[in-house]
Amino acid sequence: MADSTYAPVTRPGGVTLVVVLMWIGGILEIIGGVVYLWLSFNPQQVPTALTGEEGVDLITASAESGASLRMILLWIGIFSIIFGVITLLLASGLKNGSNGVRIFVTILIVLQLLFNAYEMASIKSNPLWVSMLTIIVWLIALGLLWSSRASAFFKQVR
User: Fold this and answer.
1) Which long-range contacts (CB under 8 A, 24 or more apart) does 113-119 make?
2) Where are the alpha helices (DSSP H) in 42-98?
3) Of the candidates 72, 145, 149, 73, which has an alpha carbon nearest to the alpha carbon of residue 109?
4) What pLDDT does 51 receive?
5) Number of domains in the chain
6) Residue 124, number of CB atoms within 10 A of its CB
7) Comparing C-alpha atoms, which of 141, 110, 135 is closest to residue 121?
8) 4 inside domain
9) Does the reported pTM lie above 0.85?
10) Which structural domain range is residue 137 located in?
């Protein structure tokens, strides 16, 4: 008679890849947030890629537009750092197979996708291909997290 117990499902390579991507993404998000914070306090250093050709001139010519740009940079920096720290914490929990963490990671990835789309539309901080590549990588991560092998891993009792 066959043994009716199931062998535990090991962590799929796709889940491990998502954990690694989350670590890399979290670290890069924090670094980007620090850069945005620094730029919010040093608007004269804002590259024209962030503001357009006339952006630096607007900062120096108009206190009001400079203040709004500084506030945008400040808030983007704060949110980037928060998302980065949360990403690192959840990546650590995801590798252990917690389905609750998988759900939180999914929410975080969706928020990061929305944030990247907003950033791409409002502040031209990266070339378009970099932003699109980031979005594609996060979409692949979502697919890997919800694949059948990953689902079997997350459904097992821990």
Assistant:
1) 113/138, 113/139, 115/79, 115/80, 115/83, 119/76
2) 48-51, 55-61, 63-94
3) 145
4) 54
5) 1
6) 17
7) 135
8) no
9) no
10) 14-150
Q: What is the DSSP string of 96-149?
A: TT-HHHHHHHHHHHHHHHHHHHHHHHH---S-HHHHHHHHHHHHHHHHHHTSHH
Residue 155 forms part of a structural domain: no
Q: Is residue 144 part of a domain?
A: yes
Can you read off the two tokens belonging to residue 55?
A: 């952006």
Is residue 157 domain-resident?
Answer: no
Q: Which residues of 31-62 are buried (b: 16+ CB within 10 A; e: fewer)?
A: ebbebbbebbeebeebeeebbeeebbeebeee
Percentage with pLDDT > 90 across the chain: 27
Please say whether the beta carbons of 83 and 29 come within 8 A. Answer: yes
- The per-residue pLDDT for range 106-120, each reduced to its tens digit, is 998 898 888 888 877
